[in-house]
Amino acid sequence: MTSLTIPAEWLIPHKFPNQWIFQCSISLRNLVLTNRAGQFFRQLVTFLEQVHQLIDYHLELQYNPQRNNELDVWICFGKPHRASKPTLTPVCISCELTHELSMTTLLSEQEYTRAWLDATARAMLILTPIRHVERLSELTDENGEMEAFWYDAIKLIDRECNQLEICYRAIVLNHGTYRNHSHLHLKIKVTDDTWNRIIAPRHREKIQKINQLLQKSSVIEDCFGPRYYKRLTKSKIPDEKLHSSNQDAKV
């Protein structure tokens, strides 16, 4: 098997109502280390979007403990959270690095990506392309952008989770009407233990600053839009609390 070979069975979904599951006989880490992540996800999004015309969907990566922690890819569709795409906000916090919320949440910048803390202080890490793209399929292969996206995701996990083998519950990419923000976000939902023991203490000052910024209505309106204003102002996080609970609300 060459480094770019993707077995055909990895792209044959197990079909259930409103969800498909793709199973790889390899972990996400090994998919990246064998230089096959870019090729696999390119074929996957082509299968979803061009062959089956799936535009609005939730993509979730999970360990499968019954298969040696090999990669499962869940695609959920048919039940969007809203009828339209997210509206553009005055500030794209993934692009406008001079905004105070962007400066506070930014962890690192690579050639093609940026890594962040979650902008609402939830227990997750965020990876975004530097280019303002809305879909995974918009990343390019020719310059290595797609491959780098997944390589940088693994590097971010290793760096922030101290190279723990099992440190996240799921990795999520939302598309179309499943999104709340237009800029593509890879959300790494870390375990509570990893967050509380490792990440939150390391970034204590940043998290406190995020919570302080979320008290400002101007920040919420500029960065999240009117749709989020009521939700965030109803559930403000106390400044002394380092993190919010692991909610599945999508940002």
Automatic annotation (TrEMBL):
Superkingdom of this protein's organism: Eukaryota
Gene3D superfamilies attached to this UniProt entry: HIT-like
InterPro entries referenced in this protein's UniProt entry, alphabetically: HIT-like_sf
Protein name (database record): Uncharacterized protein
